[in-house]
Each structure stands twice: as C-alpha cells, then as structure tokens.
Design goal:
Number of strands: 7
CATH superfamily: Vaccinia Virus protein VP39
CATH class: Alpha Beta
Shape: globular
Largest sheet: 7 strands, mixed
Number of helices: 9
Strand content: 15-25%
Order of helices and strands: HHHEHEHHEHEHEHEE
Structural class: alpha/beta
CATH topology: Rossmann fold
Radius of gyration: 17 Å
Bound molecules: S-adenosylmethionine
CATH architecture: 3-Layer(aba) Sandwich
Length: about 240
C-alpha cells in the first residue's frame, strides 16, 4: 500500500486539505452551513472523484437554490457529488434525480477501463446499492431518486420535467460526442434563471472542454456563475 494510503497519513492529509479549504470557504461564504459540508466530506474521505473546492462549490450552488429546488445530476457514480448537492438543499420536497447507468458504461474508452478496474475492486456489478447506502447513512434518502438509465434515455423518461429544474449537474460520459448530446438533451430541463454546471471543464477530458466551449460560443448558455477547479456553472 502506498504511503499516502496508510490510514494515519490519509487522515492527516484529509484534515490539512479539508481544513485549508474550509478556512477560506467560511471567510468567503460565512452564511453557509460548512459544518454540514464537513460531515459529508468525512463520510466520503476515501472518494477521489472531486477536490474539496469542487465539492464545496457544488454544496454552495445547491445552498443558493430556492427552497424545494429540483435537481438533475447526470453521472452519479457512488453518490458523492450527489450528497454534497443534497446537503445544500432546503425543504422537504427538494429532490435530486440521479441519472446513471450505475454500471460504468461509457463511450469514453479511458473512463470505461477505469470503471471496469473499480468494479473489480468493489466486487460489485453496480454502484446503485453503494449509492443508496451513502444516501441512507447521511440521512438524505428522501432527497434522492436514482434514475437507472442511459443519459439520453433518461432525458426521454423525464421529459415531463422539461423547464422545471433549478439545477442540472453533468458529469457523465466524457467523450466529446456524448457531452455534446448531454448538453442538447438536458439544457431544455433548466428553468429560466436556473443553473447548469459541468465537471471536467479544462481537465484531461478534452472532449468535455471542447463541447462546452463550442456551446458557449454558440450562445447556448447565459452568464457564467462561477468556476471551481474543473467545475464551470452557467445561469440560463
Ligand atoms: C465520473 S463518474 C461521476 C462521479 C460523480 N459525479 C462524483 O463526482 O462523485 C461518471 C458516471 O457517469 C456514468 N455514465 C457514463 N456514461 C453514462 C451515460 N451515457 N448514461 C448514464 N450514466 C453514464 C458512469 O456510470 C459513472 O458513474
């Protein structure tokens, strides 16, 4: 086991990195419940799908939504990003529709290999049970509705929700073609004044960057709300 994965070393690194992020976040946005963020971050201490600032930004975007907000996430994996969003929501009717095939099926070759390796390590065929367990352990079960489907099929399944969603977060298939198709499929779901955000903008997933860049130039999105790490958010 690599030195950085020793439990003691891992805990020290977590405390240092998360603590550093939280000191800045509490200064910047003292109005948000960063203790809740910390509770979720501790739960996902072993997760490596996003950085503290990226998770913090999702938490912030969700906290800034109106009460009873409706959210769609495309690409939930084991529910870490989903839980950070859930932690920021307010109201008993607030909900996240978590779209994922939960089998790591992706047209992005690099990702598909990574998922396959992870499923072997997990000894599981699906991440859905782990997703549900994470939500239950954090007390968010009533906020999540997993949509077990391919992204584009899910967009058809959820068609009645077009124009009603406060926040869409896309972190699914990272190929150029799939990201472009996701943008076309999911933008119509965002209500006027709502937010759409993407993970992996400007990351090694250059297809994602290209698709977002093209659609920005084409005027698909309104103003940029903010950027944190590789997350970019727009208000429509
Ligand atoms: C990078 S992971 C998501 C990580 C998660 N958002 C987080 O930060 O914790 C990408 C997920 O997208 C899912 N996925 C990839 N292509 C998809 C597609 N076409 N339809 C639905 N889900 C897809 C994979 O199964 C995987 O769980």
């Amino acid at each position: 086991m690599a030195f950085k994965h020793w439990p003691f070393v891992r805990d020290v690194r977590f405390a240092q990195k998360c603590g550093r992020f939280l000191r800045g976040a509490r200064k910047r946005r003292g109005d948000l419940n960063w203790d809740e963020y910390l509770r979720i971050a501790r739960h996902f201490k072993l997760d490596d799908m996003g950085s503290f600032p990226e998770r913090g930004y999702l938490f912030q975007l969700a906290s800034d939504l109106p009460a009873e907000a409706q959210v769609i996430e495309v690409g939930s994996w084991m529910g870490a990003s989903t839980c950070f969003i859930a932690g920021g929501l307010k109201g008993t009717a607030a909900k996240i529709f978590a779209v994922d095939n939960f089998q790591g099926l992706s047209t992005c070759g690099e990702d598909a290999v990574w998922y396959e390796r992870h499923f072997q390590k997990l000894g599981a065929k699906s991440t859905l049970e782990i997703f549900r367990q994470n939500f239950a352990e954090l007390g968010f079960a009533s906020r999540a509705e997993p949509v077990v489907n391919d992204s584009l099929a899910a967009a058809t399944q959820l068609a009645a929700k077009r124009g009603t969603i406060d926040f869409v977060f896309i972190d699914g298939d990272h190929s150029y073609e799939a990201c472009k198709a996701d943008i076309l499929a999911w933008v119509p779901f965002v209500k006027r004044g709502g937010v759409i955000a993407f993970h992996d903008f400007g990351s090694r997933a250059d297809g994602v960057t290209r698709a977002i860049f093209e659609e920005t130039k084409a005027g698909r999105f309104g103003q940029i709300v903010g950027v944190a790490g590789t997350i970019i958010a727009f208000r429509l």
